[in-house]
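Subgroup meeting minutes
Present: P.N., E.W., G.H.
Scribe: E.W.

1. P.N. recapped why we're keeping a running log of single-chain structure predictions: easier to compare across weeks, and new members can see raw inputs and outputs side by side.
2. G.H. added today's entry (73 aa).
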Amino acid sequence: MTDKPSPHDPTDLIEITDADVDEAIAVCSGDMRATIRALLIANTFTEQMLELARREASPGFLRRRPVKRAQNG
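Output recorded in log:
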């Protein structure tokens, strides 16, 4: 069996190093609970912005169909 992730594994696009984790903890003065709280707040904010973008996107864009534009002429 191989440890290779599937081609659709979203973690392939994210490279988080131990240094990144250490930095997040350091920003919160070493307080693990504060670090987790800050990350949860950031995640919630990101989810809310994504939902807003989904609501604002046109149905054609969501279906990945080209938009017919008026021809100038």
